[in-house]
Input
Amino acid sequence: MRLVLVWLLICVTGFVGNPTLAQAQMLPLSEEPVTSDEPAFPLDTAGRETPRGLVTGLVQAMSDEDHQRVALYLETPNRIADFGFRQFHILRIETALNAAARFETPAELSIAPEGVLDDGLAPMRERVGTLTVADMQQPLLANRTTLDGIPVWRISAETVEILLDWRSSTVTGLGTVQEFLLGLPSGPSVFGISARDAIILIGFAALSLGLSWALLKVRRLVSRVVRRGRMSTRFSRFIEVSEPPLQLLIASLIFTAGISYLGVSMVARFQVVWIVELAAWLAAIWFVWRLIDTIGEAVLASMSRRGAASMFSAVSFFTRILKAILIVVSAAFALRALGFDITAGLAALGVGGLALALGAQKLIENLVGSVSLIADRPIRVGDFCRFGQTLGTIEEIGIRSTRIRTLDRTIVTVPNGEFSSLHLENFSRRDQFLLRHTIDLRYETDARQIKAVLSGLRDMLVAHPRLVEDTPRVRFIGYGAYSLDIEMFGYVRARDWNEFLEIQEALLIDVMHIVEGTGTGFAFPTQTVYLGNDDIRPLLSLKQRAA
Output
């Protein structure tokens, strides 16, 4: 039911905002040149300055049954150049267009006065649709010529020749259906669409929705059979929540593919195809929106498993940024499809964006720093690290800044732009802890005792289960100012700093037992002062003699 309401809302919005109707009422205002290279010309009262203006004006004239105005959008072929278009010529051309023509949608038609220059056609030539002649597709061409000093676009003379010579033909297997539909009474018209065409289109739209619903229903049943009681995956849940936009998108594709075989007029097809194109765009945007949500949820779940809960705000921020970009891009395409010139708007956005970037330079720098912290992950919440001259524990990694709890229990907030450029030393990421101490023995220690201490320390380190193999080292490294120095070196396996301190404490106590067991002791800073009772009188006599 909700999807049907969305479909009806699109239809109402499409009829109100249909560029065919809007441009027919404001032709001079909606068809301004889009490039500054074009010289200034007076505006054409029929709105033929652009390929889109040509098609929308022609469709509106046919909708109003204004045969005289229809002739304004056609080049005169040579065979009737002497006397011009007669009413029966226009009626024949309209009949051929209604039955065999398919114009490009407003979004596909160029709003530039010079048209599309890279389409492989001559510069003053444009393809605005296709014609079905004897079951063959032929291009529906338009030429740009000058009338009364004004460059205008009109359906080419050779295309008009084909329309004048067109004869109806049926498509195998569909002729009976088309004949039946065409045999129904037309009834009154609204916006150039007869009651018969409106009923056919509404019925086919409902049929398209039903077919798309049936296809997704079959997919759901097959998925349940294949899964057969197993847990649903994230992908299957994404498909389930994305069924409404998928149903609308599939219905739009079915409707677009089948509308040519319904026997409705070209005016109705042109106006309704624009609405269906709008529905397809909305369905695609809806689907991408759900896709962004699903990806964001998957990333958040992955971070939650890894204990990176601090990144939730950053992921949510980037999800909102992607959605904002999606909205802006969709709005730009919608304005382009409605016939608005977005070139000037994009230029203004470029200048405004540059000014905003200069004004928000620090903010952007912090955002880039956040991205680098998320991508490189040098730290996580709870890590103990040194940044600059400060030691502390990471408490929060935000979008703009990072908060650290220092050893003094104060909070330091560092902008991410600055934080990401600092030299970071992460102590929590250590796989091994360094055990390195210098043991100072008294100078009274003899060589036998030093050898006994060295042997005892080596045996202690090698036998300890938490020391990494091949890393323990004990060496007599020199004579100090007041001690004989022995270095003890090795790497300890520990989960964290506290466990390392516990292991180190036990090792240092064992060192005390080994030193005491050899009969020596630890040195402490000492200074030896020699006191003498020597006779200094000879020295004084020498000093006097020298003077």
The first strand starts at residue 101 and ends at 103.
